[in-house]
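User: Some background: our group keeps a shared notebook of sequences we're curious about, and every so often someone picks one and asks for a predicted structure to add to the entry. Today it's my turn. The entry only has the sequence so far, pasted here. Could you supply the structure so I can complete it?
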Amino acid sequence: MSMLDHYRMEDMDKVLEHIENLMKAGLDGLKAAETANPDLAKNAQFQIEHSMKAILSYNKKKLDQDNRFNSVNSNEQTRRNWF
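Assistant: Of course. Here's the predicted structure to add to the notebook entry:
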């Protein structure tokens, strides 16, 4: 499966930015654990939660778009069979 199976092409640049943000936040989380820095840990947690919510919302947009497309095709097929 490619990323296009999960996200719309027009959202791909934003999705990739959030994936990069997740990686950076993960590294910040590791640094926070090594240095026992609670502020860095809180920031890393916020960044992870923010990016995950954004990525999930982009995925939902793609699913909604696919469902609308499938619904239109289903309605069209029903009309063809009915008449």
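Suggested note for the entry: DSSP finds two helices and no strands in the chain. The CA atoms of residues 58 and 77 lie 29 Å apart.
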